[in-house]
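Please go through this protein, sequence plus structure tokens, and consider how the sequence yields the tokens. Keep your notes short.
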Amino acid sequence: MSLPTKIAPFSSLPAAGGCVEQLRHRWGWFVALGALVAAMGIAALVLVVSATVASVYIIALFMIIAGGGEIAFAFGARSWARFFLWVVAGLAYIVVAAFALAQPLMAAAVFTLLLGIAMFVTGLIRIYVGTQLNKDVRTVVILAGIVTSLVGLVVLIGWPANSFVVLGVLLGLDLLFWGGSWITLGLRMKARLLSLPRRA
């Protein structure tokens, strides 16, 4: 069997919409997945403290992966200074992750504080950027910045008492909206399937 000598042009590749069209017969799976994810979101909102601990564990897991990646990149460094910099940064990630796994509630307080500061500063930056934009998008960007800053301010005002619930609420809302998007996609695929002419 000979290998192809030419790469197919992008125009001949199936588009994302084509993939959705091919999967429309499986719309029930998308709805079921969305319902499962949404149910997990509702459970996270009900068991908000447990969801907060789970959020800390998830963040710690990603930090361990990032730390391991940085240590692996260190072995490709061309100088000892860069090698030690990458290794120290990777070890710092892993140490913080280990602390989060050992003391999830204390880590939740730290993460919540950092989240509140980040949201407040991000909102101020968005407001400033919005003032530099044209009139068509200025209002939307400034409004988004105000909302982000207010949410960050609310988090900071309620800290540290709210550190047991903020991450869990955010995780629950994220899962709830994510599940809703999958359900919406599945129902649209079903509607598209029902609108197609039946074969004789």
About this structure: The radius of gyration is 23 Å. The chain has seven helices and no strands. Residues 56 and 121 are 22 Å apart (CA to CA). Residues 1-16 have pLDDT under 50 and may be disordered.
